[in-house]
């Protein structure tokens, strides 16, 4: 195992900083990734090769790219021709990534963004995104949820607010739960099965692992606004694996924080998931992050300041033979570290320390 980062459109100086912090791998999270796109929006193999070689020039590995699936899941239920056109584009992108030597593409099954209901103070007054199901309201959803690569900074002095960025390409085709008109459990699985069935054969042919990020957060029974998060439980993750049980290119962007949110005993839930999906080789990358709280009531936290025993998780990853990248994610906000570089550096150093002592 080793530390790495997810970066959006990194400059050379930012890549140099990652290398100086000890990162061995980089996941490019740009969505849309205009630097590698042709005029028609498909990825260009030569540009991906140039990106990979640029990262390798700093002594790091290009672990993978974000496959921007946009609104394909919702469209597969409501506008099938639009979904089919998106699937064609995504298959082309998978082919280009495989030809360029990219081993993994991560994607999300979120249709309605990453739901949050507010921001609370954490250690030293840092601002921590929170989800309390009993406080859910469409207005707070609009202000405080994540949309694609847009962070929940509205009203906190951040760059641009989710409200302003919704309906833009950076929102990743995601909409508010109140706008969807309901997604039943059966429809949720139909959409996921459509995406897996449409993309996995191409990924398998070109040797690219598809790393699925589960639903964040787990929703209460009955969902929110009639929208169900079917990958919001370990049983959901098991059913997802069972869609292609013998295919080694079908697995997870294993978001440890998201899995912790599935249970009122977050450490036990995360350890169970590691010990189940690790030996199956379904963990392709890890979002090594923590939360304070648990199911339906939590806040995001620095890795040393939450409810999950992070040292026990490192030991579990070692036990099951995981040998990939650990990336910080969902770092809290602070006006004294607006770019989060110091916070991310802390997360990386903390994780490196755990690796050295485990």
Structure overview:
The protein is of the alpha/beta class and 358 residues long. The chain has a domain at 113-174. It has helices at residues 12-20, 45-56, 72-78, 80-99, 138-144, 162-165, 177-180, 185-206, 234-241, 256-260, 266-277, 310-319, 341-357; strands at 2-7, 25-28, 61-66, 104-108, 118-121, 127-132, 209-213, 250-255, 283-287, 290-294, 297-301, 325-327. The strands form 2 sheets. The protein has an 8-stranded parallel β-barrel. Helix 11 (266-277) runs parallel beside helix 12 (310-319). The model has no long low-confidence stretch (mean pLDDT 94).
- Total number of β-strand segments? 12
Indicate the structural class.
alpha/beta
Q: Gyration radius, to the nearest Å?
A: 19 Å
Helix proportion range: 25-40%
| Major sheet details | 8 strands, parallel, barrel
Strand % is 15-25%
Distinct helical segment count: 13
Distance between the termini: 11 Å
